[in-house]
Amino acid sequence: xxxxxxxxxxxxxxxxxxxxxxxxxxxxxxxxxxxxxxxxxxxxxxxxxxxxxxxxxxxxxxxxxxxxxxxxxxxxxxxxxxxxxxxxxxxxxxxxxxxxxxxxxxxxxxxxxxxxxxxxxxxxxxxxxxxxxxxxxxxxxxxxxxxxxxxxxxxxxxxxxxxxxxxxxxxxxxxxxxxxxxxxxxxxxxxxxxxxxxxxxxxxxxxxxxxxxxxxxxxxxxxxxxxxxxxxxxxxxxxxxxxxxxxxxxxxxxxxxxxxxxxxxxxxxxxxxxxxxxxxxxxxxxxxxxxxxxxxxxxxxxxxxxxxxxxxxxxxxxxxxxxxxxxxxxxxxxxxxxxxxxxxxxxxxxxxxxxxxxxxxxxxxxxxxxxxxxxxxxxxxxxxxxxxxxxxxxxxxxxxxxxxxxxxxxxxxxxxxxxxxxxxxxxxxxxxxxxxxxxxxxxxxxxxxxxxxxxxxxxxxxxxxxxxxxxxxxxxxxxxxxxxxxxxxxxxxxxx
Length: 496
What we know:
The chain is an alpha/beta fold.
């Protein structure tokens, strides 16, 4: 056992085990010999299938007597964010002094290593943490890691190891229902890859100042001998970095004029994009490196360059890094092609107007036909504060469709700098519904439709999409099977 590896618990019970993060962590602990059990409101593939495959005991509902299979010795509890803080199992654990942790606390306590690499930022953090952990694996460094997506190049989204290096996606959203701190504060960062900082999650950070403050505090928490690799192209970054007390600071971004090129700068240029992926050139200290990647999206050139800069800063050979980049297949729901051929269907988690705009700009640069977008924002994108961000956000889409939006269980209200929830929130604090969102986008877009019936929406897509067109499903929710039904209908149509 490596000296940097903490002693793992004998048993782990996960309340809310069906989440992407919590299920991945449960499997990671089981693989290291911890006896894992879990509970949730319900279980569905693919999570249930993965839990069964790894012999993890789980059950539906909250039943304190079933926790740990009835044997509580040496046990700790991990509480998933969706499980809430007052279900019977959580209350039982606390009443009986069983140690309870949120999943970010579990990561910080049992997975963060001597070299703790955190990939943070408004966007790019999931792709970057997955890519960088893959680079470290290909270099033989066996990192512990955790990221919030499903990788097409990893066995799972989380891994516990005995090495001295770890990689985590540094999410700025709250750690748990009772801990409003950003998740990244728990990860003990010694190395930080900072992609971008642009106001998001308005339900948690009601003002831009609140949002920026979280990242400023993260930077201030870095050790003096820490390393920050940051994108110089992004607004707010350089101003924030003035609070960094360390000496190791590396920048990356678009190519700079020769007179301004610095030894600690990595630039990219000559980005070429096709349906097969990306090609680009990275320049550093007078050298040029040719990069090939199967990933779609011009924005991935920035993520790739950040990971390349971080790898070089850690002493990983450029040859190994370039080879790993060429092999990394990306993440599900990140410009994922669900259908190719006469019509292309893209599935992406872009749940804010800014992220949607970026994805649509990429699709416009690759495809020649119409782009039809089905968009559902996250809760922050339904707030009144986010309305101004929708201006011109869908300019690269020919048709925009807003589906029936997922029903929110809570309504946010701000009291004394804390976000609380309740039915007594004022009307102007209620989240936007689909018809209103369609009107907001329609102010700067000529063709926006609100279709609240899923079957009618699918029929619209099938009848309006023609050869060489693209249908893009953008949003953080699963679209209630509409993607799969659209794929099936279009395949049937073009086979007939």
